[in-house]
Every structure is written in C-alpha cells, then in structure tokens.
Amino acid sequence: GENVEQHPSTLSVQEGDSAVIKCTYSDSASNYFPWYKQELGKRPQLIIDIRSNVGEKKDQRIAVTLNKTAKHFSLHITETQPEDSAVYFCAASGGNTGFQKLVFGTGTRLLVSP
Amino acid sequence: EAGVVQSPRYKIIEKKQPVAFWCNPISGHNTLYWYRQNLGQGPELLIRYENEEAVDDSQLPKDRFSAERLKGVDSTLKIQPAELGDSAVYLCASRGPSAGGRGLNEQFFGPGTRLTVL
Fold first, then answer.
1. What is the DSSP-derived secondary structure letter of residue A18?
2. Residue A92: its H or E element
3. Which residue of B has its CA nearest to A97?
4. Cα A45 to Cα A32: distance, rounded to the nearest angstrom
5. Mean residue pLDDT across chain B
C-alpha cells in the first residue's frame, strides 16, 4: 500500500523567514496530495491541496509543489508568523488505495519565534 | 453550517472496560471516516463508510473494535475490551461534494475524542 514519509519532524524558524516541509510517497498512482494543519488540541484542517495534473499551487503565503517523477511534494510557507506554529501533516491518496483513502505522514512541528 | 461533531471529547477508563465514541458528520456528507491518531503521529484510517456501508475496514482490529452507521448519518465506534495501547485520539471525518470546501476531496475532521486507558 501507500507509504508517506515526512521531513523534518520539527522545524524552528524566526518570524518572517520561510519554512519548507517535504514529503515522499511510494505509490506512483497516487493523484491527490493535501496538507493539513493541526494546532495543539484541535482538529486537523485542510490548508492547501494539489492534484497530480499540476506542478504547483499557491494560496497567499502558502504553496505546494509536486514532482511526480521523484514522487515527492513540498509545502512552502513564506513570511511566517507566530500563528503558523502548529503540526503540519501531508497526505496522499488515489491509485491502488482508492481516491478517498488518505495516507498521512508523521507530521512536522513548526515553531515560529517572534 | 455545523462541523463534524464528536462526543465525548475526553474519556478515561481502566483497561478491559468497554468504551464508545459517537460522531455526527456534516449534513449531506455520505462518506464518513474513523481515524486513530497516536501521540506525535499522523491520523491512521480505521474504517470508511459510504452511507451505511463499510467499504474499507481493513485496518480495524476486529477482535475488539466495532463500528456502525445504521442510518447512514451518525456513527459509533466501540472498543471492547480496551487495552493500554488503545490510548489515542479518535478522529471522525466526513466528506461530501456539497461541502463547499476547496474541492470534492476535502475531508472535514471533528475535534476528536482523547481516550486514556489506565
């Protein structure tokens, strides 16, 4: 089945810096890649997603890039703010696991210091 | 529009006791998921429902876990008997084309039930 690896496990940046979180997946047939943000004690919430038919997608300060050949995708946060501090999860679905089954990475704890 | 509702939010039980979690998905969402999230890990799928049918329960430990969604709306996840290793957050999520989210694929999560087994 699908396996998603996520790095780094923790990331500390200064306010205003950029942050990059990387994920790799194993199933070349996967075609949907969402990113979820989970604040302490709260529910995961979708912040951005990308389909396999595009290589990049942006939404204000966040962007996701996808390299299908290398089977990896990344989350980019620019001009980080303290409220960006949270755990971020990548996920993949599609292919042999079915379009509706998400396999999550292990998460990245982002800490943005003022 | 109300989000996914779960109860209870917290549950502390002794091992070997039974426990049940309840989830009410967003209105109109046909797909319902139960996930388990261990500390410091990502959510792991336990079971997926399409309406009242369990279409993917391959990762549900069937010797002690059971789930139902009798009318295709709310759902209950049960553990009997609970073991120490069952301590985790149990998340419910739902998905539907009428969600108004970023696309047809978005899963909306509930706040979760934090289970502690002593």
1. -
2. strand A86-94
3. B56
4. 16
5. 91
The pLDDT value given to residue B101 = 46
What residue of B is the nearest CA neighbor of A105? B42
CB pair distance less than 8 Å for A49 and B112: no
Residues of B in Cβ contact (< 8 Å) with A102: 43, 45, 107
Residues comprising chain B, all counted: 118
Which two structure tokens, joined as six digits, stand for A102? Answer: 């998400």
Strand-pairing partners, residue B48, are B33, B56
Identify which of A77, A39, A44 has the alpha carbon closest to the alpha carbon of residue A58: A77
β B108-109/B88-95 pair status? antiparallel
* Cross-strand bridge partners of residue A28: none
* pLDDT for A99: 59
Write the DSSP symbol of residue A53: T
- The residues near B61 (Cβ < 8 Å, ≥ 6 apart) are none
Q: What is the DSSP string of chain B?
A: ----EEE-SEEEE-TT--EEEEEE--TT--EEEEEEE-TTS--EEEEEEETTEEEE-TTS-TTTEEEE-TTSS-EEEEESS--GGG-EEEEEEEE-TTS-SSSTTPPEE---EEEEE-
Q: Which residues of chain B have pLDDT under 70?
A: 1, 97-104
Q: Is the peptide bond prior to A8 cis by the omega test (within 30 degrees of 0)?
A: yes
Whole-number Å distance between alpha carbons of B42 and B78: 21
pLDDT computed for residue A95 by the predictor = 65
